[in-house]
Amino acid sequence: MDRIRLVGGNPLNGELPISGAKNAALPLMIASLLTDEPLTLTNVPRLADVTQLQRILVNHGVGVALEGRRRGEDDMLGQRITFTATDIVDTRAPYELVSKMRASFWVIGPLLSREGQAQVSLPGGCAIGTRPVDFYLDGLRALGADIEIDAGYVHARAPGGRLKGATVHFPRVSVGATHTILMAAVLAEGRTVIENAACEPEVGDLARCLVAMGAKIEGIDTHTLTVDGVEKLHGAKHAVLPDRIETGTYAMATAMAGGNVLLKGGRADLLQAALDVLGETGAHITQEEAGIRVTQNGNGIRPVDVETDPFPGFPTDLQAQYMALMTRAEGVTHIRETIFENRFMHVGELARFGADIKIDGQVATVTGVPELTGAEVMATDLRASVSLVIAGLVAKGETLVSRIYHLDRGFERLEDKLGRCGAEIERLAG
Ligand code: EPZ
Predict the structure, then answer these.
(1) Which of 1, 8, 351, 371 is the most buried (most CB within 10 A)?
(2) Looking at ligand 1, which atom is closest to the CA of residue 200?
(3) What is the tens place of the pLDDT at every residue in 134-191?
(4) How far is the CA of 406 from the centre of ligand 1 (A)?
(5) What percent of the chain is predicted at pLDDT more than 70?
């Protein structure tokens, strides 16, 4: 298994390109199931999760055509992929495929709304919490679906072959449930109102693509989505929005290592809460035409308390990276995780660098230390693993991060991007 080797101490300087958002690309790819015409996505990141979802879509009968692979410098540009679901050949999403990636459960929405039926394996738990699917199933039931669970599969059927519009109220904000019910509602008969919808930018990106495909959706980027179902959707072309979590991760890496980095293509409006916090910690952040510039002049990192929240709050997907930064702050920081119940797995690994972190329920108390020392550490989930890289950027001596397949799920060519900005970082094969 590949590992990443870092030697800490170099500042970051230069330009770092931001890829298309993984968490937007995945639902956009799934939306291709809604039409028999081609859906072309541009700015698609090269990630293991994207490849895995392609396998799942192919299994349903979707044709996947990758256009114009680019080489050299241009490799940092996103991919252009056309998905064509002329016929859905299989409405079953098997355990072997769904269990590898939770987002693949979302196919249940478009399959049910276009084909009137779907059999999708339950995704199961995952490292960061139990992550149930009750909101999805209650929402689909509200749209008239009959749902049965048998042998680990959800068997869903729309009586008469078509879902019926209804009001769906989520007990709490859920990104995946919003994506799924939105994709189910666009082909349902009549009006659906989704209340307490997630308004994460990736939901807005999906909604805009659906509108380009002929869907009727009002209230995009708000907590109430109103969808008037149409009989058919058509093909479209859509550019995946920039990855706000990748942007925030490299902004924190720069705040940690010091230096001056242009996060090319990054959009501050997608992560303002996190950038505001970073500014309070002492980093200087400006939106330029080409992207976001982050500078940190080495004057020390101030501790700032943070609580994760749904958008527009501080994202849970940046909590681990922020904790890594706070391990070097001049004082004590409290970090409260409110979205997932078990998202502190990076704490044990950060301790291996000499970090001082105590957990009490959902709150981590981080007491900054003057120096981290390089260590052998293990990635446990996607965002946790990149927090170890951030720590390694300043840790004295050598850091070896193992199990980096987690990183490859969501960070495109991380070692190249950081290496070009001056980090001493390499991938060790084997
Ligand atoms: C999405 O997961 C993201 N994944 C996550 O990013 C992200 O952390 C999360 O949203 C929150 O922003 C993708 O977009 C692929 P939720 P999702 O449903 O949709 C509870 C990453 O690292 N809940 O918004 O699965 C749930 O347990 C990943 O890229 C229910 O109780 O998250 C959680 O506590 C990790 N019942 C809360 O809601 C349900 O039926 C919010 O989860 C559904 C959710």
Answers:
(1) 8
(2) 12
(3) 999 999 999 999 999 999 999 999 999 999 999 999 999 999 999 999 999 999 999 9
(4) 17
(5) 96
Question: Which residue type sits at 19?
Answer: S
State mean pLDDT over 187-199: 98
User: Which residue's alpha carbon is nearest to atom 4 within ligand 1?
Assistant: 23
Cα-Cα-Cα-Cα dihedral sign, residues 309, 310, 314, 318: positive
| 364, amino acid identity | A
Q: Is the pLDDT of residue 29 over 90?
A: yes
Q: Could you give the angle at the alpha carbon of 220 between the alpha carbons of 194 and 49, nearest 5°?
A: 85
3-state secondary structure 53-80: HHHHHHHHCCEEEEECCCCHHHHHCCEE
Do β-strands 236-239 and 38-44 pair in parallel, antiparallel, or remain unpaired?
A: parallel
Report residue 73's pLDDT band, with 50, 70 and 90 as the boundaries: very low
Residue nearest to atom 21 of ligand 1 (CA): 317
Q: Half-sphere exposure of 157 toward its Cβ, with a 13 Å CA cutoff?
A: 6
Closest CA to 262 of 240, 230, 295: 295
Q: Backbone phi, then psi, for 240, in 5-degree steps? A: -65, 135
What does the buried/exposed string (b/e) look like for 226-252 if buried means 16 or more CB atoms within 10 Å of the residue's CB?
A: bbebbeebebbebbbbbbbbbbbbbbb
CA of 176 to the centre of ligand 1 (A): 6
Contact in structure between 292 and 262 (CB atoms under 8 Å): yes
27: Cβ–Cβ under 8 A, 6 or more apart, which residues?
Answer: 103, 106, 179, 183, 202, 206
* Cβ(36)–Cβ(87) below 8 Å: yes
Model confidence over 2-27: pLDDT tens digits?
999 999 999 999 999 999 999 999 99
In this predicted model, what pLDDT tens digit does every residue of 309-354 receive, in sequence order?
999 999 999 999 999 999 999 999 999 999 998 899 999 999 999 9
Atom of ligand 1 nearest to the CA of 340: 34
Model pLDDT, residue 381: 87
Q: Which residue, 106, 130, 92, is CA-closest to 29?
A: 106
